[in-house]
Each structure stands twice: as C-alpha cells, then as structure tokens.
C-alpha cells in the first residue's frame, strides 16, 4: 500500500525538523569558537526548530486520527517534550541540562526521521471484533 497524504505531510515536517535541529550544534559551535553572532543564530534556530516541532506535534495528531497509528504521535510527544525542556534550560543558562538534552533530542529526531521514511504510512484497516479476539488470543495484544 502507498503512503497516504497525511503520511507524506508527516514525513515533510519531520524532514524539516531534522534539518533545523542539525543546525543547532553548528551554531553553538560557532559561538563557542568565539564568534558571538553564533549565539544569535543558535537562538533563532532554537525558535524555528521549536515551531517546527510544535507543527510536527499537530501533524502527528492528524496522522494518528487519519492513519490509525499512534506511534508517530507518541514519538513526537517525547521528542517535543525533551526539546521544550532543552529550550528552557538553554534560556536559563542551565548548560548541564541543555547539552545532554540537545544530544538526546538530535538522536530522537533522527530515529523518528528514519522510522517515518522506513516504510509506507498507509491507513490501518480497523479490526473486526472477531479478528481482535484472535489477535489477543495469539498473544499479540
């Protein structure tokens, strides 16, 4: 089965998110190398990355409803929650939390990127009551 339109939208937003998140360590590195404009770019990049993350959250809800797949929503929720805490930690200067959460966030978005592109995101057919019972009896609840 081919990927549904909402699956393609999710892929596009996750792809934009992964691109913007890759810029963040670059801008931080520019700043830490002594170019103070890097901090301004890191701040702007954090805003853009966060906005795209929140957009991804909305698109993941739509994908959940339309495709009957919860995992993109749950994965996005985890990534966006970590990203939000990381954003606040950066604004507060809590670098002890900001740096490791940054690494975790980049890894999470990359894993999500691979997951949404790995296979088609088509609408899952609803199970009938009998099929659901057979699935549960087989231990695949």
Write a compact overview of the structure shown:
The protein has 141 residues and is mainly alpha-helical. 81% of the residues lie in helices and 0% in strands. Helix 1 packs antiparallel against helix 2 and helix 2 packs antiparallel against helix 3.
Architecture overview:
With 141 residues, this protein is mainly alpha-helical. Helix content is 81%, strand content 0%. Helix 2 packs antiparallel against helix 3 and helix 3 packs antiparallel against helix 4. The longest helix is centred in the middle third of the chain and has 31 residues. The protein is elongated, with a radius of gyration of 18 Å. The two termini are 24 Å apart. 26% of the residues are buried. The model has no long low-confidence stretch (mean pLDDT 91).
Roughly what percent helix?
over 70%
Sequence of secondary-structure elements: HHHHH
Q: What global shape is seen?
A: elongated
Largest sheet: none
What is the strand tally? 0
Overall pLDDT, averaged?
Answer: 91
* Percent strand: under 5%
Uncertain residue ranges: none
The computed structural class is mainly alpha
Task: Give me the Rg, rounded.
Answer: 18 Å
First and last CA, distance: 24 Å
Give the helix tally.
Answer: 5
What is the fold's blueprint, element by element?
Elements: H1 5-32, H2 37-67, H3 71-92, H4 95-118, H5 129-137
Helix pairs in contact: 1-2, 1-4, 2-3, 3-4
